[in-house]
Amino acid sequence: MTRIISLSLGLMASISAMAGPAGAVDGTLTLYTSQPNTDAQQSVDAFMKANPGVQVTFVRDGTTKIMAKLEAELAAGATPADVLLIADSVTMEGLKQRDLLMAYPEADVSAYPDGTHDAEKFWFGTKLITTGIVYNTAATMVPTSWADLLKEEAKGQVAMPSPLTSGAALIHTATLVGNLEAGWGFYEGLAANGAQAAGGNGGVLKQVAGGEKLYGMIVDFLPIREKAKGAPVEFVFPMEGVSAISEPVAILASTQNPEAAQAFVDFLISKEGQELALSQGYLPARPDVAVPEGFPDRSAIKVMPFDAARALAESEADTARFAGIFGQ
């Protein structure tokens, strides 16, 4: 999900000035991340401006590939990674349960609502990337509810990413099943109504923007960004609520520089770090930071509850059931 929004030099200077005393930590730090390259570089540069005694290098790839690299290194006995910043909390929960993460009980999360971070402070959400409904402006029905995708007007016209290939889609499925009254019956209804599940979010956007499908399930920023470019799409935050991935950050238990790693976490969840996320076009996880252009007021965005530990335990069963419903 490539971002092209550049961080202004003025904001960089502001972050440096407000982020606290320089030189409080030093040494080197290695970040493994699934952030887009531009976002990762901006995050690292802003942190080093605020902490000039620390030299940060980062390794970037998709969450699946970066985790495969990390797992191979751990199996071999050591990894250079100190900090991990990836897409979803379910992966972090798996690492926590294997005692591969370091808790940071002193982290200040007082500005955040419960559920944004791990209750035991092993990982910390940095953004809210929600999944809602996109529709083509040629559609006669304007959806406001997940249930609208089961209507006759949406028959054969719904596209969605598959949890077999998309981590965000797996979290979305678990969230809807756990929060909608119909549970798995909602997905059975979608399949009966001709909905198609395949690939990732980019494919959904292409189908709906191109008119091949009129409706879709998709992460928020893709259609909001494309609408601003003139694409014939609108994004809806359904009345029942939306699912969200939080791009969590965590410290690896094997870190050689825990002080610098903690400072990196502090920066990302600070107000200044959250303003950096805003400048990159993301919805910050911290409620006292504004929303990006094109998003509604926070009061209009209801994020459904999600239990990462439960989702981890049920992930195999959930993907198998989804595959059975949609014949995958």
From TrEMBL:
Transmembrane region(s): none
CDD domains, per the entry: PBP2_Fbp_like_2
Keyword Flavoprotein: no
Alphabetic keyword roster: Signal
Domain of life, per lineage: Bacteria
Pfam family, one: SBP_bac_6
Protein name (Swiss-Prot/TrEMBL): Iron(III) transport system substrate-binding protein
